[in-house]
Design goal:
129 residues
């Protein structure tokens, strides 16, 4: 009786091994239906650079991260701007996030932040409609 049980176990193990090898080789050969990915639209994009889109009709770039600072430049609705830095500024009980841009500082209340240039450009198109 034990000899028959051990033979059944051996046959079962061999059957599992055979099925495993058939499925593993078949699954590796089915690559003809794959669609190649096109990454040409994102080539050369910096990964860690964030962008913002001005969400107000007009926004004032400030010389310093403060509403009372002098205006350095002006921006318009849907402008896409690269973020160079961020700073939290506390004014009384209110803490505001300011974004440093090449033209000056913009307050978080005037913009929307995006993780990459493509997202910011798409949002800008939506604002322009």
């Amino acid at each position: 009786m034990k000899k028959a049980e051990s033979q059944n176990k051996l046959v079962l193990i061999l059957l599992y091994f055979l099925l495993f090898s058939v499925f593993s080789t078949v699954s590796c050969d089915k690559r003809k239906n794959e669609v190649p990915a096109d990454f040409s639209s994102v080539e050369g994009l910096p990964v860690s650079v964030e962008y913002l889109v001005i969400s107000e009709p007009y926004a004032a770039y400030r010389e310093k991260p403060s509403k009372s600072a002098l205006v350095a430049n002006n921006g318009r609705l849907a402008d896409v701007v690269e973020v160079k830095g961020k700073k939290y500024v506390k004014n009384g009980n209110v803490t505001q996030l300011w974004y440093e841009c090449p033209q000056g500082w913009l307050c978080e209340t005037d913009v929307q932040l995006y993780k990459n240039l493509l997202q910011a450009q798409e949002a800008s198109r939506e604002f322009s409609r």
